[in-house]
């Protein structure tokens, strides 16, 4: 126990007691049930792991290993190495060795299916350090993205001012360029830092034929045998397993050399209004995207394969590098979504194009994505590098949902949550409902009324760690913080919900001890959202941590859930004690 002083005015101070974290009543009751005379043996801990934590394959050796870990963490002293008292049991439950996702599970999904069978961690304008109009272009955000597990890097390539070399920049803006060769070398160095599965480089090409040839030479010399190429359009995409430590190029040959447009700063309003300090709430995935200011220029995906004149303007050595061919095809949406049994390709749509397409062609989109790759990118007015709700794309099978990784906000937290699955390797197997037709050859309908498959019961016991990670006046200048938690589900429309605990005043270690139930119709696509905020009567509530977790990989039982900052960085100490049960 310690005391904390807050200065209210020149002559008045408020003093508060700060007490140590204490085990919640449920934890005490469980300890009493699985202990004898206040001591939990390894045998009792083993029973607890099986019966409460639902670790059916847990062994007595696992229980001994936990006790040894607690000893190494100095939670147990040498005299209690073979048993746990209540305080040690509580600290074990709240320790990093008891996470909500099983780190031992690693990469456990089948990685031998075609690339089109996976959600792929995808970046948008991966070279930008900030906003879309005036920030610097650099290899640093590319490196950071690769270290987060991102597997698709986008580069916009343009001639330099002398027209004799290639630069990466956001064309028609005030962004400062970075040399293409620097980006390529950084990709090579960091591509497989956290995942051995393939990296795809999507090129938005604005080059002359001569500079295409130079780009081909740079790519070939940089990546060498790492580069995967194909002499013709692929009939089926290879698997992530077969492409380990390989780099693929995806683009379309441009119809003509596009000159950069002059920047018109008038009307350059923000793409979103992040009115909340931690980022605005995720938009409704049913939104119909009627924004008249959307601009998809520069990302058009017209099919050049059917235009022989464009082929004549393409350097052959450049064209041979393209492993994943992009193109929309002639005609309208139905033509774009045409499934060719003899070749596969990538189609790009803006978030608004997708929003309109799912209304009229939802089933065709899902059928298209069973063999082909669909890439979705942010609408053109997101000048502030904000993002959109990814679930409209995921629930229709889109593999490459391109995000601005340099920002923050709830949409990006969902992206982080999705790709915590499958060992964080950047590839998450799409559920069978998106890959296989049902009875009468019907495909999945994300808006259909479906029966509840399972119910997730979540108990939010308590939180701690803010006292260590923040200044004591960070949340409130005059008193300890007033924390509340928000718990909910992101997924198909029927499963979306957010709920809230009570607010606990003047407490660095809030003990809410509240239960919530979430009926789930499509648990395979569901993400558990967790946020903590500090209530402020006179101003906007303060952000105090967040995480997002794939429901399909949640470990049942009582778990220590680490929280992250707005940008997705894990806090050193802040975590929640929660219990997960499927009922």
From TrEMBL:
GO terms for cellular component: plasma membrane. It catalyses: a 1,2-diacyl-sn-glycero-3-phospho-(1D-myo-inositol-4,5-bisphosphate) + H2O = 1D-myo-inositol 1,4,5-trisphosphate + a 1,2-diacyl-sn-glycerol + H(+). It is found in: Cell membrane. One of its GO terms (molecular function) is phosphatidylinositol-4,5-bisphosphate phospholipase C activity. The keyword Membrane applies. It is a peripheral membrane protein. Residues 436-565 form the C2 domain. Keywords: Cell membrane, Hydrolase, Lipid degradation, Lipid metabolism, Membrane, Transducer. One of its GO terms (biological process) is lipid catabolic process. Residues 348-434 form the PI-PLC Y-box domain. Residues 296-308 have a biased composition (Acidic residues). Pfam families: C2 (PF00168), EF-hand_like (PF09279), PI-PLC-X (PF00388), PI-PLC-Y (PF00387). Its cofactor is Ca(2+). Its EC number is 3.1.4.11. Its main location: membrane. Residues 259-295 have a biased composition (Basic and acidic residues). Residues 259-318 are annotated as: Disordered. PANTHER family: PHOSPHOINOSITIDE PHOSPHOLIPASE C 2, PHOSPHOINOSITIDE-SPECIFIC PHOSPHOLIPASE C FAMILY PROTEIN. This is Phosphoinositide phospholipase C. It comes from Solanum lycopersicum (Tomato).
């Amino acid at each position: 126990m310690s005391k904390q002083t807050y200065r209210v005015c020149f002559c008045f101070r408020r003093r508060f007691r700060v007490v140590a974290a204490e085990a919640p009543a449920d934890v005490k009751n469980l300890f009493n049930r699985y202990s004898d005379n206040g001591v939990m043996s390894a045998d009792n801990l083993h029973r607890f792991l099986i019966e409460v934590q639902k670790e059916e394959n847990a062994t007595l050796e696992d229980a001994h290993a936990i006790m040894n870990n607690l000893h190494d963490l100095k939670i147990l002293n040498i005299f209690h190495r073979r048993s746990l008292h209540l305080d040690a049991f509580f600290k074990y439950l709240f320790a990093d060795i008891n996470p909500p996702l099983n780190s031992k599970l690693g990469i456990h999904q089948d990685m031998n299916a075609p690339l089109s069978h996976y959600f792929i961690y995808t970046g948008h304008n991966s070279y930008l350090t900030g906003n879309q109009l005036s920030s610097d272009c650099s290899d640093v955000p590319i490196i950071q993205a690769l270290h987060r597990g991102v597997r698709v890097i986008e580069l916009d390539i343009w001639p330099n001012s002398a027209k004799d070399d290639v630069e990466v920049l956001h064309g028609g803006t005030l962004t400062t360029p970075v040399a293409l060769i620097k980006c390529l070398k950084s990709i090579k160095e960091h591509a497989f830092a956290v995942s051995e599965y393939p990296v795809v480089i999507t090129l938005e090409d604005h080059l002359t034929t001569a500079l295409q040839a130079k780009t081909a030479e740079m790519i070939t010399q940089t990546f060498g045998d790492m580069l995967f190429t194909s002499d013709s359009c692929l009939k089926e995409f290879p698997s992530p397993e077969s492409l380990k430590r390989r780099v693929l190029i995806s683009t379309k040959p441009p119809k003509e050399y596009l000159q950069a447009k002059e920047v018109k700063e008038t009307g350059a309003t923000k793409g979103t209004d992040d009115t909340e300090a931690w980022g605005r709430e995720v938009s409704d995935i049913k939104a119909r995207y009627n924004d008249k200011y959307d601009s998809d220029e520069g990302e058009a995906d017209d099919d050049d394969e059917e235009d022989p004149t464009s082929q004549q303007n393409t350097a052959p050595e450049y064209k041979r590098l393209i492993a994943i061919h992009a193109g929309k095809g002639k005609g309208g949406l139905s033509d774009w979504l045409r499934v060719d049994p003899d070749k596969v390709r990538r189609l790009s749509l803006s978030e608004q194009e997708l929003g309109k397409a799912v209304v009229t062609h939802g089933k065709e989109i899902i059928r298209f994505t069973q063999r082909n790759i669909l890439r979705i990118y942010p609408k053109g007015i997101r000048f502030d590098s904000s993002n959109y709700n990814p679930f409209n794309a995921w629930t229709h099978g889109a593999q490459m949902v391109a995000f601005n990784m340099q920002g923050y906000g709830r949409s990006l937290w969902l992206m982080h949550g999705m790709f915590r699955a499958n060992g964080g390797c950047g590839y998450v197997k799409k559920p069978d409902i998106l890959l296989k037709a049902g009875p009468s050859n019907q495909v999945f309908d994300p808006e259909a009324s479906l029966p509840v498959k399972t119910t997730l019961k979540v108990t939010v016991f308590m939180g701690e760690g803010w006292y260590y990670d923040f200044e004591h006046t960070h949340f409130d200048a005059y008193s300890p913080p007033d924390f509340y938690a928000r718990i909910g589900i992101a997924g198909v429309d029927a499963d979306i919900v957010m709920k809230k605990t009570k607010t606990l005043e003047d407490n660095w270690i809030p003990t809410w001890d509240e239960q919530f139930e979430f009926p789930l119709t499509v648990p395979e696509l569901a993400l558990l959202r967790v946020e903590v905020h500090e209530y402020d009567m006179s101003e906007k509530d303060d952000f105090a941590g967040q995480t997002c977790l794939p429901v399909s990989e949640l470990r049942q039982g009582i778990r220590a859930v680490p929280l992250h900052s707005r940008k997705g960085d894990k806090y050193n100490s802040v975590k929640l004690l929660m219990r997960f049960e499927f009922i």
